[in-house]
Amino acid sequence: MLIALLAILGVNLVVIVVLLAVVLSRKRWVKRQPGAFRGVIRVASGEIDGLRPKWGRGYGRWVRDILVWTKAPFFFRNELVAADGMDQQRPAGPDEVKRLGDHPVIVQLRTGGATVEVAAHDEESQQLLGPYRESVAVTRDPSAPPEHSSQAASIGAHANADR
């Protein structure tokens, strides 16, 4: 329907296809960056240029202590968040963030006079923590099923013990 509307408005179909190819290739490039994770971000207090108080989707990755946030849906703009430290790491409440799995993790970062919250799927919590992963252990809901990687590690440990 969108393509039909653009065609009626006189936009050439080749232009639409090229724009779509550029957006999809940019998304693929962003996803393949080392340490990239899919998530949402918002400003909890204060002001940061380019970020809003409402959750915004995109991809993040850490470069030293700077969070590079690539905004969805077009992935053309990067916002840089120079983190001074991490205030809090917690599991997300019910219906707090959408489309990030059953047990998303939220990290609260200090940057200047503002506070930013970044959420990601619990399987990507190590990438989300970035330079702060050694200083904090990820807390999980005790009623949640165990992670696949820990199950595989415990199975491997039992197999090695049997030898």
Strand and helix map with partners:
Layout: H1 2-8, H2 13-31, E1 37-45, E2 56-63, E3 66-71, E4 78-82, E5 85-91, E6 105-111, E7 114-120, H3 125-129, H4 148-162
Antiparallel strand pairs: 1-2, 1-7, 2-3, 3-4, 5-6, 6-7
Give the gist of this structure.
It is built from four helices and seven strands, in the order H-H-E-E-E-E-E-E-E-H-H. With 163 residues, the chain is of the alpha+beta class.
Describe the fold and architecture.
With 163 residues, the chain is α+β, with helices and mostly antiparallel strands. It has 2 domains: 1-32, no CATH class; 36-140, Roll (PH-domain like), CATH 2.30.29. It contains 4 helices and 7 strands. A 7-stranded antiparallel beta sheet has the order 4-3-2-1-7-6-5.
Element-by-element helix/strand order: HHEEEEEEEHH
Class based on secondary structure composition and strand pairing? alpha+beta
- What is the spatial order of strands in the main beta sheet? 4-3-2-1-7-6-5
Integer tally of domains: 2
- Characterize the biggest β-sheet: 7 strands, antiparallel
Strand portion: 25-35%
Average residue-wise pLDDT: 83
CATH class of the largest domain: Mainly Beta
Inertia-based shape: elongated
- Assign a percent range to the helix content: 25-40%
- The number of helical runs is 4
- Counting DSSP E segments of at least 2 residues, the number of strands comes to 7
Alpha carbon gyration radius: 19 Å
The CATH topology name of the largest domain reads: PH-domain like
CATH architecture of the largest domain: Roll
Instruction: Show unreliable segments.
Output: 147-163
What gap, in angstroms, lies between the N and C termini? 62 Å
